[in-house]
Amino acid sequence: MAGDLFARVCRLSLFFVSVVVVVAAFANPRLKSFFVDGLKEDFSILGAGFGDAKDLFIHDYSPPSPPPPPPHPPSDSCAEDLQGVGTFDTTCRIGANLNLSKDVYVEGTGSIDILSGVTVSCAVSGCSITFNISGDFSLGQSGSIVAGAFVLAAQNASLRAGSIINTTGLAGDPPPQTTGAPQDLAGAGGGHGGRGAACVTEKSKSQDDVWGGDPYSWSSLEIPNSYGSKGGSTSKENDYGGGGGGRVWLQVVNYLELNGTVLAEGGDGGIKGGGGSGGSIYIKAHASKGNGKISASGGDGWGGGSGGRVSIDIFSKHDDPEISVHGGKSNGCPDNAGAAGTFYDAVPRSLVVSNNNMSTSTNTLLYEFPHQPLWTNVYVRNKAKAAVPLLWSRVQVQGQLSLLCGGVLDFGLMHFASSEFELMAEELLMSDSIIRVYGALRMSVKMFLMWNSKMVIDGGGEVATSLLEASNLVVLKESSMIHSNANLGVHGQGLLNLSGPGDLIEAQRLILSLFYSINVGPGSVLRGPLENATTGDLSPKLNCELQDCPIELLHPPEDCNLNSSLSFTLQICRVEDIVVEGLIKGSVVHFHRARTILVHSSGIISASEMGCRGGIGRGMVLSNGIGGGGGHGGMGGDGYYNGSYVDGGVLYGNVELPCELGSGSGNDSLVGATAGGGIIVMGSMEHSLSSLSVHGELRADGESSIQKAVNDLEAGFGGGSGGTVLLFLHTLMVGETAILSSVGGKGGPNGGGGGGGGRIHFHWSEIPTGDEYVALTDVKGKVYMRGGLGQHQAHSGDNGTVTGKACPKGLYGIFCKECPTGTYKNVSGSDRALCKQCPPDELPHRAMYTYVRGGVAEIPCPYKCVSDRFHMPHCYTALEELIYTFGGPWLFGLLLTGLLILLALVLSVARMKFVGTDELPGPAPTQHGSQIDHSFPFLESLNEVMETNRAEESQGHVHRMYFMGPNTFSEPWHLPHSPPEQIKEIVYEDAFNRFVDEINALAAYQWWEGSVYSILSILAYPLAWSWQQWRRKKKVQRLREFVRSEYDHACLRSCRSRALYEGLKVAATSDLMLAYVDFYLGGDEKRPDLPPRLHQRLPMCLVFGGDGSYMAPFSLHSDNVLTSLMSQAVQPTIWYRLVAGLNARLRLVRRGRLKTSFIPVISWLESHANSVLSSHGLRIDLAWFQATASCYCQFGVLVQAADEGFERAHNEVVDGALRIDQTRLQHVQRSSPPSYLDTKSNILSKRIPGGVLDIYSVRMLEEKKDIFYPFSFILRNTKPVGHQDLVGLVISILLLGDFSLVLLTLLQLYSISLLNFFLVLFVLPLGILYPFPAGINALFSHGPRRSAGLARVYALWNMTSLINVLVAFVCGFIHFQTQSSSSRKHPNFQPWNFSMDESGWWMFPTGLMLCKCVQAQLINWHIANLEIQDRSVYSNDPSLFWQS
């Protein structure tokens, strides 16, 4: 079971993959003649001149070829000689057991059939049975052939299940002049394919030095034909040795069925004799099948016999039979079985040496390998032990050389390690195996793979150099090892990979070269010299007494050959990439012509404690072992003993280019003396390392003194000094976990001085300067060069040195960094003090010294402005550049003012020429030839035209019904459902209610219209106002269209009105705040009391348009119908003048201040209006009407008869006159908002709910003020001031000034930051820019009405932009607070340059705000001048008012 398990493990370990490469072999001229002439069939090591090695080489030779066989005897007969049936020319059947006593020779053209269970036996040693037939041969089930030799030649052959051909122990005489049979009485095994085993009986000998019978017939292993040898005996009287194995030849032309057994095993010798060696088996066929057994194994005995030789030449094998050539079991020494024989497979030309997992110390000798054709593969496996014993030999195979599952391959002789060998193959695969070389090995393979294996090279103490070349791949895994106690070179062109823990390559002098990549995995080791070298091992020479640096450290040879005269102990040469995760250790470690080296956090490159014991800087030592520390880069610390000091080592070496070994305390002759650190050199003067990245450790530390006394010496040696780390680099990266160290060792505990620190030098190659500069290093780890600590009052060693190559201009320090910003360096060197401060007086205000790639090499030092908003070379803002371009702030201000005045004059002249003729519309003639004053058209009816017969127009008018509500998106127009008293006689109430529902539905706005308005109100209120006016206009057009053409007038009683669609009309005021429905008679009512006369309509409500805001002031709308009605009592000219004066007063009424602004209107009505109307029997009073649920009411005037007064408003008049409506009175009192009026002062008409406002009741008004109320103090309707041209000129100047200040403010903010610029520009969006185009549009528009409307929009934009100005204030203030401290540090401006730094942030926003406020007042005057050209309407003298 154990053997099967071991075999499985071995099979699983075959992980290697083959790669093909042509490899050149090494030649040895000194041994060439010996190799050519000596390795013949008749070669004997005794005749080669090595007589002193007679005892070791006496049996190691190959016998001559056997002489040609004698002619065949006559053929035996089937019936007479073999007792069979038939003839050999037909078919001969042998059906009975046959015992023979002599050789049998059969020849014929027929077939032979040995039936099942039949035995043909000639159990005599050397007895031969030969069947030479042209037909078929068959050995039935359980049939057997027993003989000393069996030879078969047939067309086809069949060995049935259970059949056997057995020649075990029946061998004849082995070839002459062979020593396969042992001659002593040690009971050793016989030899053939390998040596027979012998058990060691002398303590002075090892098991490897003793064996039994010798191998022979190496030259004929491809066609083996030799008998096995007899085993030795332990007695002279009796021969207890087992017999050798016989010979079996099966030559089948076509097909071989092999389900039986073919044996040529050696006989057993028991416990008194050695086992016989296996014989020879040769099988040749075209094809075969069957799972039979083939064995030429050695026999068991006191010493096991060796295996024989088996050769199979079958072109096509359908099955693999079991083949055994292992040695026999040794009863006297169970761990030393007989050596394995050989199995040769002719088709793939493969040689297999397998011992069936039986342990042995006995060799299977491999002599000369064939040259043509080469063997393809050689396998040494399953604990087989093979040896190449010659003084010089070449082992060359075309494919694999595999050592698997405990296989061992020895080159040379253990006690004569002076041989030289060549090993050439495509692949060398090792798994759980060993290669031992005694002498030197030149290996050339394409792939070298090791798994838990060892290659041990014993150079024998001579200068022997072994070279291992693997062109494609070298992999060591699972604690594999390559060990040499001499010089070792490992070369390749691909990858060298030490995979993990336990993997090791070590030698006294080790060189690795020509690989593309070397990976030293975690826990793996590269070492040179050996850690525990013996005195017999080759010791590398250390130059401890040389003052000068060895030239090869700075200028190494280019060929990378292993030269024992050089000082390197471990060199890695011409390797592209090196990755270190394990340990690389040596006395002088050199990396030559490498590209990159990466040392991971677990990686260590060390030369610690590998320097000199003694040396130039050795510390002195007293006779009792107390000594000073070694010196190198720092002085060694003095030792201390009994009140006196022992001198430490001195300084030595070149600070600028160090390459010396560290020194120790004492010398080599003193036990316990300490060693200094070694040398680590990376790169060379000619070939610097491209990149070194260290996350682990680079150490060349000195050795610390031991803690215990040795050989009566005090434990007081000084510490060794640190060694040298010399790095020729392009770039260096030292990670946070990295350590670069060359520290001194600690002194001994009894007064040893500390070792001095070593030297670390960075020699940079091609330090880039100027624009080509890149940082050479990124150092985050630790660099140590301190001295070691002294003990017991001894001195510590001085610190070593860390130096770098002298830096060019602009760079400083060990790592050639750029001089700090604000300094310059114009000389070469590395001292920080060479970086001088730049002259501060050359630095402008708002500037700072700028980083320059490669450092600043000359003055003046370059600088840049502290922000991108400042511009070189004076670091002015864009605004300051503009100002200083025109001579500074004062001159710039004067030039700008003059330019604005000039442009304003040009603008005014252009405006006068463009719109001057439209400013003052001329008078229009009246019907009677008189003139009506039209100097203020917007205060009169929008429908005012020349006088006509208004009686005709108003003949059918019955009543005017006003819409309730302000016509906003939240509160649209709506009509009350109950028809008023005035129209109940002409409408159907139900139909009227349906009409009201339809008209109210049309008057309502969609949700999205209000949403757009809300959004625009936030972003840009002027646009929101324009949007509202546009939707109002569309709404009025929709209502008119509905009433005029869509509604069928079904609510009217008149058939004619319904037919002609003439009974209803919808109209609205120009401000679109007030709408109304006029009801007309159809002409077919035949009612003499309709339409009512003016006195019948009294009291009559006239509602104001507008809402008292800046954009829609209150105004009385007097159209043709109203003018015609009033003309029944008052002349039209008087009515027009009254409306104009009233509208002029209403312009001054401001929402939010109705209490105070309505009082002048009430006073004017009493003093100017009623004083004239009373003579016509009329009176008008200010009143409010139609309060809605949201407390919105409409204002207007109440027209009533002058002689009725307030009391008559409460009387009922019969026949169509006034009539009290207590229900409506109560309704109005309930619906009237308490914030407007006390209901006690209400005077209600019978038709329209509302109340009269007098000078007392108006004080009770309470209004809600919105967030825009403060703007009403700036935007308000005023009285005209005249001087229209002058006002326009000043507005033009301010408009241009405003735009100039806006641009300057934006330029200032852009100089501060782009964020501030966009904040001011887009909060509100572009609001700061719109006033200018709006103002130009207003100034250059045709007609006073259009100009006034556009001027109001201009005023809105002007006020809206104040928010942007406020944002500019905030941005400027925040910037000033964050920058004020730095600004105060640079007062570099002239005294007259007031506030041009950050402290002047408020100037332009303040000027802009003042400009906009002044503009607002001028726009108010401009609008007043446009809307009211006749200022006499504001006259306080009634006579003067009516006279005008």
From TrEMBL:
<feature type="region of interest" description="Disordered">
    <location>
        <begin position="168"/>
        <end position="215"/>
    </location>
</feature>
<feature type="transmembrane region" description="Helical">
    <location>
        <begin position="1313"/>
        <end position="1332"/>
    </location>
</feature>
<keyword id="KW-0472">Membrane</keyword>
<keyword id="KW-0812">Transmembrane</keyword>
<protein>
    <recommendedName>
        <fullName>DUF8003 domain-containing protein</fullName>
    </recommendedName>
</protein>
<feature type="transmembrane region" description="Helical">
    <location>
        <begin position="890"/>
        <end position="910"/>
    </location>
</feature>
<feature type="domain" description="DUF8003">
    <location>
        <begin position="802"/>
        <end position="876"/>
    </location>
</feature>
<keyword id="KW-1133">Transmembrane helix</keyword>
<feature type="compositionally biased region" description="Gly residues">
    <location>
        <begin position="187"/>
        <end position="196"/>
    </location>
</feature>
<feature type="transmembrane region" description="Helical">
    <location>
        <begin position="1286"/>
        <end position="1307"/>
    </location>
</feature>
<feature type="transmembrane region" description="Helical">
    <location>
        <begin position="1353"/>
        <end position="1376"/>
    </location>
</feature>
<dbReference type="InterPro" id="IPR058316">
    <property type="entry name" value="DUF8003"/>
</dbReference>
<dbReference type="Pfam" id="PF26010">
    <property type="entry name" value="DUF8003"/>
</dbReference>
